[in-house]
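User: Please run a holo structure prediction.
Assistant: Happy to. Please share the sequence and the ligand.
User: Here you go; the ligand is iron/sulfur cluster.
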Amino acid sequence: MEKDRLDPWGTSAIKDYSRLQSEFGIEALAPLVPRFKKPSPHMRRGIDFGQRDLARIIEAVEKNKPYAVMSGIKPTGDFHLGTKMTADDMVYFQSLSKKGTVFYAVADVEAYADNGLSFEQTAKTAVRNVADILALGLDPDRAVVYFQSEELKVMRLGTVFSRGVTNNMLRAIYGERQIGLYMAALFQAGDILMPQLPELGGPKPVLVPVGADQDPHIRLARDLAARYHEEYGFIPPSSIYHRLMLGLGGSDKMSKRSADTLLTLDDATKDASRKIMTAFTGGRDTVEEQRRLGGRPEICPVYDLYRFHFARDDEHVQLVYHECTKGIRLCGECKQEAVGLVKNFLEDHRKRRDSLMNDAKELLAKSRDYLTSTGE
Ligand code: SF4
């Protein structure tokens, strides 16, 4: 049987999400969903499927105790639908309690190591990316957004951690990589554990929402939390995992590395429409076959557009699934409907995002002041 591969910097192959439990120790999410008063659309639609120590976050919410939600973005281009999934989870978990604070790292060190982009280039992209997440609902009053390369606390933690890991350990988690990526991974562990430093309120539960392919970073951070528990009192970070969206060309993951299989929040309407209308589908070879056998939403990226982002509500997702599998719906009309939904969303989002550019700059400046005031 082909083994699943989780690669945060390349192509991941996940044939069976339930196997990630035995292969990597990711626990099922379903038993914990009833503990949420209003489960998120990702939970209700089976998009979020796994977790590690999520109960710690649920308890913090129930007991009105502080917790953090930590994630980041690699500022290599426009916000795309994969990044939006993580952002949606962050916004949801921030909204569960007034005691929840978001820490959002602009991973410019990783963008340099992995993509060769200069810090000047990524700084410009980052402001727009931050405005995107504000437009998606992030509450700026309980958010700290910072550049990885500027944050000395992260650099220091990364440096401390570099003495606690061996080449063998990094190779076991990530495979053979260039040194820059190992360094970026250590700084990323610094990002994940920074909210627990004494000057930022001390040890607390921290949730990291990620795509399944990012699990190696979580394993490293949890390992380091245990190694440095005595010194810093770190609590192992919790995580929640979402499925990877299929690329529009039918690949396993929508990725910035392949522009035509990717929808971004900045695609011109005509480009978004072209990409959707030429997308791979789970449809059959002929209309007659599709009417008789039904389509295959499980392998269809157009269905993913509905399920992950653009359906009006859960009933709409179920309707598309039902009509597809029963042969009632054909791919051409299904794509046309998706184009309309995407177009409306993109137009609304861009208007909101463009009006929030100054707020994004202010949030970055306010966060810089806050982190500086807590000591360098
Ligand atoms: Fe995909 Fe829609 Fe075709 Fe079904 S009808 S296979 S969901 S494009």
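The mean pLDDT is 89.
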